[in-house]
Amino acid sequence: MIVNNKDQSIKNAIQLKNALINMYAKCNDMKNAELIFQQMKQRNIVTFNSMLKGYTINKMAHKAMELAKLIEQQQIKFSAVTYNLIINACIQIGNSESFEKGKHYHKQLLQDENIQLSDDINLQTSLLDLYGKCGDAKMVEKIFNNMNNRDVTAYGALMKCYNLNELPLRSIEIYKNMKQQSIVTHILVVNACAQLGFKALLENIYEQIPEEYVHHNLMIQNSLIDAFSKCGDVKRAENIFSSTSKRDIITYCAMINGYGVNGYGLEAVNLFYKMKDEAKIIPDQQAYVCVLNACSHSGLVEKAKSLFQSLRNKDEKVYTAMIDTLARVYLFDEAQQLINEYEQQQGNKPYLPMYMALLSGARNKQDDLKAKEIYDQLCSIPNAENNALVAASVLLANTYSAHGNFEESTKVRQQLASVKKLAGVSWTEVNGQIFEFKAHDRRHPLSNEIYQELDKMIEELKQDGYECDKRCELIT
Fold this sequence. Notes:
Radius of gyration: 26 Å
InterPro entries: PPR_At4g14850-like_plant (IPR046960), PPR_rpt (IPR002885), TPR-like_helical_dom_sf (IPR011990)
Structural class: mainly alpha
Strand content: under 5%
Protein name: Pentatricopeptide repeat-containing protein
GO biological process, one term: system development
Strand order of the largest sheet: 1-2
Order of helices and strands: HHHHHHHHHHHHHHHHHHHHHHHHHEEH
Number of helices: 26
Keywords: Repeat
Pfam family, one: PPR
Distance between the termini: 77 Å
Largest sheet: 2 strands, antiparallel
């Protein structure tokens, strides 16, 4: 009886300390949570789960992964909650290495007889998110189809996957077939419409969203501002922006970006300063990226320089936006100086999008020598991702073709022949129906007739004196 009491007191002590870890984690105080954890002589899987949850909700995913290693080293059995938290940590880190670790833990849990995956909706939803961000839509669909129970969160994860992987039509189809909606699914379908850029479709979806959300939910209003801007209806975006009773930084960024993508650079800059000076909202790095991109699209180089210099601590995305602004007007030396400045700062590694921005500028100028120089720099970056190198090779080959240097273009093209490339997808709307197509696509039932009409148009153009510019015969 005494032993049982002692065991019960130990169990109660563990439960109390687990609760304390949870409390400190929710208060964003991981130092005290770690202190309690380190002082515990006895721990159970709930203890580790409490720490894992603390690390993930406090954006300390790398520490969560270190703790996962410790759990394995101590040969403690993972629970379904453990797998869920570790997979979420992998998603939070968000690079190719962490995604591979997430897949590894997925395989491991499939071999665990104590885990009934088909009945665990939270774990399955996390896996949907993982594979969606890995770009594996087929695996996402497989997991989704194997779910015994699906809630609105699972449907949202599937829609998010489709949006991330440029499959917005599937996202819209899921939305239309759902019996129950949520704020998240409304936002996701609006984002899908933004990808397509078809105003009529967006207006149709807009009418299906409850008025209380349209007029009073800021997250949906922010998405609508973004979507109408991307559909080219700046006035409608402005009207929604003006109707918002309480704006946050995302609201301003959506409108600034909306002005930018439609060529209203000055309006974007003016709104940025209004946000700062009148709304008293301190712009974050993303806000600077939005306004710099707006300057880039409108050729406002001096304004971009002034904005860039006004920000003391700049991340890699701010640098990339400024480099893109300079590259678009062929100021390659200045752009290169910024790359050097960024890489010379302690802890900074080469950032591929900076070089891609430079390379795009060289392509636009049809400067094959500059393009080759930038391409060689890019290829020398350690551990450069293969997809980025493929994209850079395509840009280089296109630059050679545009300059008329078909011999060098063919060499690059031959090197790419064995590499699997993701085909670009486009959409068009005909009589209210949306069609998806790729280069050389023949999936449409009227493909023969479409190509015959295209050939006919080409012949008519030739008869009117137009000639094919082979410099534009670029690879895709």
